[in-house]
Amino acid sequence: MDLDIKYKVGGTFRIATILMVLIGIIAIVMGFMSGETDRTWANLLLNNFYFLSLAIGATFWMTMSAITQAGWSTAYLRIPQAMSMWLVISFVLWFFMFFGIHDLYHWTHPDAVAHDPILMHKSGYLNVPFFTIRFVIFFALWILLTFLLRNMSIKQDTAAEGENVRLFEKFEFTSKITIFVLAFSFSLFAIDWLMSLDPHWYSTIYAFKKFVSAFLHGTAIITAIAVLLHMNGYLPMLTKSHKADFSRYIFALSIIWGYMWLSQYLLIWYANIPEETIYYVPRIMSDYKEFFYAELILNWLIPFLFLMWNRVGKTNWGLLTITAVLIIGQWVELYMSIMPGTVDSHSISYIEIGSFIGYFGLFALVIATVLSKANLIPKHHPYLMESLHDDH
Amino acid sequence: MRTNIIGIYEDDEVLLKAVDKLQENGVKVADVMSPFPIHGIFERLNLTTRMPLATFLYGAFGTISVFAFLYWTSVVSYPLKFGGKPLNTLSFIIIMFVLTIFVGTFFTFMTYFIREKMYPGKEVELPVPETTNDKFVIVVNKTEEMTNADINNINKLMKESGAIEIIESDVNYNS
Fold it and tell me: Do B14 and B150 meet the contact criterion of CB atoms below 8 Å apart?
């Protein structure tokens, strides 16, 4: 098999994604012009967090396969590496969010904090300067580590025999550091930007659930990209057993996601303490009800029931359908996390759909461009042969 | 009496190649025995199993019957309100979850034991007892229609593909 596979971004694809970005920009500008400032900021937060967590989840997937020395995933390592490069774009996009924090976060208003003993108590941690410092440190760490990992992997392509094994060991060591940094910093990041939307409420499992969600949906996107590339003639090594591996990954993670969802909900329901149940009251007893059940059905029930059937996970259409369901599922999950705490009346209209299309287009364009920059498979990775001949 | 031609191998990789070679030459491989699971052997032998379906059905049976039991005890037979919770409650979920796993696993094991006719204290019925230690075995059923030439051919193919020993055994091994 020829190991030099170069991906080329198609002209139609480029035009389509640029059009999607334009739709997004128009939707966001119209959102601000029409006076729905809160809602537009909330949507920007949703989309920023959505695609950031995909990049984080993909990085976690890549580091996970490095530290477990997984062989089968080697041929697909360039996909999470490309997705992790989104972090740079994400950093720029998040910066705009600082113009909107007064619209989104109750605790950023000094006069509100002064009359609120709970916020006063939390102000040592939840204050704008420290919030900004944490934001910059987290992004600096993520970008540094993902760049290091990608550079090592690209250097490996031209490395001599022996040198590539040394780089592989270095990659594994850096992965160990990255996994700790990601788990810790992304949890705090989720608390900062999502949980503090309801600053009186707290849940100790919230951050971990967001982390599992990032891992699940990042894996789903990696799978979707791998299958799409395969269908377009790239990545000929994507055999049935690889598809089964991808589907098992999604299957297991969606069960963990469901477990986390239940762990948070059941304990709050059981204990029935007003400070905690206040979070779920608007989410179940108002017009958010449909979204509340949709979140569980899309992220857990559908992947669980369909991927249990082994045959579905071994086909292209099966994997693409499940990943499409999960793409909507993550959106619903973040909608449920963000909207009840930020907007007075919610509805899904051009702002929601347009901004998501815009971000989606930009994400697709960035990933495709980064993928075209390097060889599509890490051709001197020591485990590549194991991955290519994984025919059982 | 049915007998089997049995090729003994010392390595799993050699055995996989031998299975391929026998099948290419039109020999039906009845079974393979190995001290550990070998990747890819299941697909090579074109085996099918209904075990996952059975496990799914047991699991579904477990979920439904445990729910029925919980519903009967805490809603129908002895309704007792506590903590202001409804009688038919979410707290069933954990018990249902755990017992679904238990029922699914337990009945799957039982099915396996019954299908394999295994019970405590059963005598080992293996054509080559070393397959539990360090030997790998290919079993080919010797049928009535086989001529001497066919049998010699099978012996030759096994020898060529690296069998260290070829024996004939009349252990009534039905695949």
Answer: no
Q: Which amino acid is at B52?
A: P
Query: What would the mean pLDDT of B87-109 be, rounded to a whole number?
Result: 91
To the nearest whole angstrom, how far is the Cα of B91 from the nearest Cα of chain A? Answer: 8
The verdict on residue A6 lying in a domain is no
The verdict on B97 and B77 lying in the same domain is yes
Structure tokens given for A387: 């991955």
Q: For residue B35, give its domain range.
A: 3-47+126-169
| Lowest mean pLDDT, pick from B84-88, B90-94, B98-102 | B84-88
Tell me the ipTM for this assembly.
0.75
Positions of chain A with pLDDT lower than 70, given as ranges: 1, 390-392
Tell me what pLDDT residue A247 has: 94
The model's pLDDT over A320-357, given as tens digits with 9 standing for 90+, comes to 999 999 999 999 999 999 999 888 888 888 999 999 99
* Beta pairing partners, B136: B9
With contacts defined as CB-CB under 8 Å, which chain A residues touch B56?
A: 308
- Report the C-alpha gap between A132 and A119 in whole angstroms: 18
Res. B173: pLDDT tops 60: no
In a domain, B88, yes or no: yes
Task: Establish if A89 belongs to a structural domain.
Answer: yes
Residues 88-107 of chain B with CB under 8 A from chain A are: 90-91, 93-94
How close B150 gets to chain A, by Cα (Å)?
Answer: 30
The domain in which residue A62 lies consists of: 11-388
Q: Which of B96, B115, B134 is the last residue of a domain?
A: B115
Tally of domains within chain B: 2
Interface with chain A: mutation pick from B39, B46, B51, highest number of A CBs within 10 Å = B39
The domain total for chain A is 1
Q: What are residue A6's DSSP bridge partners? A: A375
For chain B, the 3-state helix, strand and coil shares in percent, each to the nearest 5, are 50, 15, 40
Residues 6+ apart with CB under 8 A from A60: A179, A182, A183, A214, A215, A218
Chain A residue numbers with beta carbons less than 8 Å from the beta carbon of B93 are 262, 266
User: Residue B175: is its pLDDT beyond 70?
Assistant: no
Q: Are residues B64 and B111 in the same domain?
A: yes
Indicate whether A233 belongs to any domain.
yes
Question: For the whole model, what pTM was predicted?
Answer: 0.89
User: Angle at Cα A301 formed by Cα A314 and Cα A279, nearest 5°?
Assistant: 140
